[in-house]
Amino acid sequence: MGSREDLIQSSIPFLREVKDMTPGAEMERWLNETYGEDSQLYRHLARLIKRGVEEGWAANQEVDGPNYRRSRILEPTPDTFQFSITAVYMNSTDPRRFKDEDDHDVLRGQYHGHPYGELNLVVPLDKGAELKGLQGWQGPGWTAPDPGSRHYPEVRGGAVIALFYLPAGRISYDFAAPS
Q1: Burial bucket for residue 68 (CB in 10 Å: 0-12, 13-18, 19+)
Q2: Is domain 3-169 in CATH 3.30.70.660, yes or no?
Q3: Taking the chain, what is the end-to-end CA distance rounded to the nearest angstrom?
Q4: Which of 67, 120, 131, 153 has a CA positioned 20 to 30 A from the CA of residue 113?
Q5: Cα angle, residue 6 at apex, residues 4 and 8 outer, rounded to 5°
Q6: pLDDT tens-place string over residues 30-57
Q7: How far apart, in whole angstroms, are the C-alpha atoms of residue 120 and residue 133?
Q8: pTM for the complete prediction?
């Protein structure tokens, strides 16, 4: 079995377990307590998605240059309980970064919304790299934006891969960003 198929097959038992949960702050806490960076599931999925980026089958389509890439790994299927699987690579060393309130370099991605929420495995490639979730900055672990939430994906401290699971594959870029 190749690493892409291994990632998909390794995701199915996890998705079976979470398929009836609602993304949000409570689920995010549960994910980080149950499947945080020291868990076997986190380590296995993180290893596979890193390999996917190295092998070129994950986060291989430039959104806005080589430091902001994504790819849909799998469309929603009955086997994944109608979750899609997507990967995003973002690196805050990009020349288009800006400084945040703590003087960190931040790369901001495309504004978007989550009609049904999102489950997002955060895999830093650089020590100290973080993804901004709706509950704050997250290093190794999970974010779980609520259904109906909208945000800019942001990274600081270097490169991050986000492996995310979308209920019904739903994500929308059709919202006007706040001014």
Answers
A1: buried
A2: no
A3: 47
A4: 67
A5: 75
A6: 999 999 999 999 999 999 999 999 999 9
A7: 9
A8: 0.94
